[in-house]
Amino acid sequence: MKLPLAEYYRSLGYPSSKWHVGVEHPDLEDYALRLLQGLPTPRVLEIGYQAGGFAVPLILGMHEEFSYVGIDSLSYDNAVNGDVLAAYLRSQGVKSGFEFLQEDACHYLYRHRSSRFDLILIDHYKPFYPRELLAIVQHGLLAKDGHILLHDIRGRAQGVAGLCEAIARAYQYSWTVTDSVPEGLAMMQRLTPELQQSGFAMSLRRGIIQAAVGLWSAGYQVRLALQALKRTLHRSSSREPYRSRLLPGSVRSHLVHRLGPLWALPRCLAILSWNRPSRRDVRVFYGHGRIPGQESELSGGMVKFQSMQCAFPNSPQRFNILYMVSSRMPYGAPQMAWLARKKGVRVVWNQNGVAYPAWHGPGWKARNAPMARLHAEADHVFYQSEFCQRSAEQFLGPRFGSSEVLYNPVDTRFFTPAATDPDPDHLTLLLAGTQAQYYRLETALQVLAKIARRRPDVRLLVTGRLAWMPSETKARRQAEMLAARLNLGQQVTYLGPYSQADAPAMYRCAHLLLHTQYNDSCPGVVLEAMACGLPVVYSQSGGVPELVGPEAGIGIVSELSWERIVPPDPDVMAEAVIRIAEKREAFAQAARARAATKFDLQPWIERHRAVFEGLVQ
Fold it and tell me: In this structure, are strands 173-178 and 512-515 parallel, antiparallel, or unpaired?
């Protein structure tokens, strides 16, 4: 009896978290079977068999004479031991021809460098794609008319797609990408002899690629080690904030400034291997290999990239527009932009805030250095607010090329007001975003305490991580101690981090946004709150007054300083909340109307389209 693989796992008592069959099935194996059609004895190698989503249907779909080898390190929690897959295949009548191995793929590739395969699928731990692909082409493991497939090339493997394509070109393989398989599939074949090149230039190109892959692999291992060290320091309850103990801020900034370009080396090498980009259609790359979906917990520049995906999908290969945002600037951005412009790519820079002494502390000049270069050299600059433009001119230097102020957008079809009052029995305030500085929460709690004396029904919702300390447990304890001193009892609720997909429901739980951040350049949370019908009480500093205007909230007057943080006055802010609460319906309607008429996503997208097309053509 034919038992589906998923049912087989359930019959063994495996919870769904312990096995995974992705959305690419059955399209991926159907594509592979078409490539293998007509071969008398197809030979298949799969690197990363995971839970058998590709291997099982492929083996069951091939005829009696075949050879399949699957390799997996089983590093993922939802990967299944090969013995379990072998037992399933035998229960379905397939007795031989397959082998599942648990080991590092490079070790296998080296031991079997005399083997030849008709189909090789790479579909496993994405950062190791270049390492395995280089070993395959160096050892010549592909049969004469065979195919190499790399899955997820439009998804989680976007970050290495450029380097993988550079490897293919250097070793005389064709490279095509198809979207007929979910998450994208790259296919490689050997070039015919008449298309192959030789000579010193090709040898040099291969040497550069080998060095790039070595640096990529070494850099990734260092990154993993640093992440492990960071987690260890976060868990340590006996330490002070490790950032100040381990490396001073000025030293960190200089290290990032000097060593950051090494992280961009593989991408730069991939750009060097191109022909000139197309001038027909706009193809945009955002400097990051992968743009996470709206279910991810993100902020700043990455949210803008998410908003642009429907109109301008991320294209790490052969792009003609390099679009980067200062708040999510990739490592080595100036070097990447310089090389891209040499290839005819147009660079568009989106300028948010800058580093200055009060906010950044020591090292602020080093932090600004790459931004200053991109701000000066880009083909076009978008400033997120007039405040962003003024601060950039002061700290980054003058801009002589084309530029404009284009405020951040909000999708007013997605961010909409609540149909009814979310909590008629309370006045609910919202402190949104990530709480990166203690003064923001401290001010909000002080405001809440002052309002509570006149309106005991008031409460405060706090979102995001409490990130002013490495240990969030310590930060939470500090916040709760302050709330206790202010006699706030159960009036504060911590909601934690949230994704863009969850954001509208979160805003609809509140009546008013309390925005206590000083000199905020162009905060998306203010626009999202307004679109959901929340008036805003805010520090009248930075770019926020440009967003809220006179009708959608009340600003608390503040002096401008680059040398110190000036939090809004809690007494004045509490009075502003009371005033808005008395006329909340009118303020709410004005907030929604202002967001819909001035900051809607579609005009923002269309303005980008006009700029991109003008630059490309």
Answer: unpaired
As to burial, measured by CB atoms within 10 angstroms (0-12 exposed, 13-18 middle, 19+ buried), residue 564 is: exposed
Domains recognised in the chain with CATH numbers: 5-195 (3.40.50.150), 236-405 (no CATH), 427-599 (3.40.50.2000)
Of 267, 152, 269, nearest to 205 by C-alpha is 269
pTM, two decimal places = 0.66
Termini Cα distance of the chain? 61
CA–CA gap between residue 612 and residue 284 (Å, rounded): 9
Above 70 in pLDDT, residue 567?
Answer: yes
Please classify residue 499 by burial: count the beta carbons closer than 10 Å to its beta carbon, then call 0-12 exposed, 13-18 middle and 19+ buried. middle
Nearest to 82, CA basis, from 90, 385, 221, 240: 90
- Kindly tell me if the per-residue pLDDT of 233 is higher than 50: no
Distance from C-alpha of 551 to C-alpha of 592, rounded to nearest angstrom: 10
Angle, CA of 259, 160 and 191, to the nearest 5°: 125
Alpha helices per DSSP H over 62-176? 82-91, 105-111, 129-139, 158-170
CA proximity to 80, closest of 52, 108, 46, 47: 52
Strands 185-190 and 173-178: antiparallel
Q: Can you give the pLDDT at residue 429? A: 97
- Quick one: pLDDT at residue 254? 55
CB-based contact 449:487 (threshold 8 Å)? yes
Per-residue pLDDT for 244 more than 70?
no
Show Cβ contacts of residue 96 under 8 Å, excluding neighbours closer than 6 positions: none
Instruction: Please give the C-alpha separations between residue 578 and each of 429, 532, 548, 582, in angstroms, as whole numbers.
Output: 11, 20, 18, 6
Per the prediction, the chain carries an average pLDDT of 87
Say yes or no to pLDDT of 82 above 70: yes
Q: Nearest to residue 84, comparing CAs of 57, 45, 52, 62?
A: 52
Q: How far is CA 507 from CA 98, 353, 514, in A?
A: 54, 25, 12
Please give the distance of CA 391 from its chain centroid, rounded to a whole number.
26
Backbone phi, psi, residue 293, to 5°: -75, 175
Give me the amino acid identity at 459.
R
Q: Which two tokens stand for residue 390?
A: 């003024």
Strand partners for 150: 122, 186
Q: Identify the residue whose tokens are 């330490």.
A: 239
Q: Per-residue pLDDT for 541 more than 60?
A: yes
Weakest-pLDDT range from 3-17, 225-239, 322-336 = 225-239
pLDDT classification of 234: cutoffs 50, 70, 90: very low
Rg of the chain, C-alpha, whole Å: 28
397 Ramachandran zone, left/alpha/beta (phi>0; psi -120 to 50) = left
Helix ranges restricted to H, 236-277? 242-246, 249-263, 265-272
Distance CA 546, CA 539 (A): 12
Nearest residue to 436 (alpha-carbon basis) of 255, 546, 299, 249: 299
Length of the chain: 617
Residues 6+ positions from 464 with CB-CB distance below 8 Å: 432, 433, 434, 435, 496, 497, 498
DSSP, collapsed to helix, strand or coil, labels residue 559 as coil
Cα-based distances in Å from 71 to 28, 105, 108, 166: 18, 6, 8, 25
290-311 pLDDT tens trace: 787 766 666 777 888 888 988 9
* Interatomic CA distance for residues 456 and 449, integer angstroms: 9
